[in-house]
Amino acid sequence: MKVNGAILEVAGLDVAYGDIQVLWEVSFSVPEGQVIAIVGSNGAGKTTLLRTLSGILPVKGGEIRFAAERLDLCTAPEVVARGVIQVPEGRKLFAEMNVEENLQMGAYHRRDREVADDLERVYELFPRLKERRRQKAGSLSGGEQQMAAIGRGLMGRPRLFLIDEMSLGLAPLVVDDLVEVVATINRQGTTVLLVEQDVQLALENSDYAYVLETGRVVREGPSTELLGDPEIKDIYLGV
User: Which of 198, 33, 190, 51 has its CA nearest to residue 125?
Assistant: First the structure.
């Protein structure tokens, strides 16, 4: 999908771990203000893609442009400073630090005076985090840790929010709450790139989706169309 005015454009992206290539000529666009999903089974290359967008992995070939600037030439801190923030798979919280300290770490690069206001915004989205703000992050439940990871990402004031496997290992009711929060974040103006192994969840809560299979984009389309596609149902939804 080539989109005029897309906030993120990825063209012909190749990524490798040493001699082992993982992504092959991956191309997609993310229009500003939308929720775009990248779906696929375990091992499809989804996390590798996000790590590359975040500047953690080098690009072997192709380009990544964010707000018309070359993102693939940036270091990871520079990517964050431009407003591309990732919530990593597995949360990756600082276990011995308390919840509020973890949230404040998300604003480490900021020099403005509105960090305290954004902290209150996170607590409004996640009242449970405010209740546990002095509790060590490592003692939280899985769902609470995911809330903290999303909250930490929001403290960086993302223009593009990359969320990796948000639902992994969580109870359905917790996932429902997180989905609603992501929808709220999007309504408030943040563009979201949602990477999920749970294909149905991703398609039900996004505008457009790309299917990644063994490192290649094999399908794309409006999420509602893919959700009703017989092949997608057969392969990914077990229908």
Answer: 190
